[in-house]
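Bumping with the actual sequence this time:
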Amino acid sequence: MTDAECVAFLQWALPRLDMRWAGFRKVRRQVCRRIGRRLRELGLPDTTAYRQILARNADEWRFLDSACRITISRFYRDRGVFDALGAIVIPALARAAHARGAHALACLSLGCASGEEPYSVKLLWELGCAGEGDGLALRVTGIDAHPVMLERARRGCFHPGSLKDLPESWRSRAFERADDEWCLRPEFRRGVAFVEGDVRAALPAGPFDLVLCRNLVFTYFADSLQRRILAQLHAHMHAGAALVVGIHESLAGDSTGFRPWDGARCTYRRL
């Protein structure tokens, strides 16, 4: 399958999955490899034949949907975003939680892949926000539709390349070397939970103080689906909670329920 053939196929298929081609343009090779492998498994000569399979087999659409999941993740991705979370956003959220008499700060990571983002929040809380959360527990929930990725997340061991953006002192304090991997110490996994689920179907029960919705909904999903999930996120968040999106993303459609958080890149305050 040539790149041009794959592009034409994705431009046809993605809207039927409530996804947008623009989000996949730069990362399409990962998806194209999976589709090419699927054609070989089915003994099909090209994507025209695959379209015929899709026309008569709804289960194959579910496979194609899973093939379009992008799994790119690392710790502390987009460092400036996490720096602002630690310096500005999390201290404000902790003060608000104290003011309403809460005992914990609740965080949700959508499309958490193998856990780098949820664990980054935990590391930031423990090592980058010293004293800000006194008297508060941190509870982080990561949700992803890919069971293999979630199993990796629960295991808590990572390839060295996924830690390259972490402050060196954090890596030495929070991880132990195990052969060719770095494994999180138990105290830095405590309070972080992972659930299997599709954010298009349902979100974990809130309300949440901090939601990280980066490089998923507002990159890959169709505009109408973005608006629906944004409304659901609003309903699952405390007033004054923080919503963090990707550095190349913006909120879709009617985002009047949120406003930019002053001084914090890619972060919005829930009104």
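The tokens above came from a reply further down the thread. The mean pLDDT is 94.
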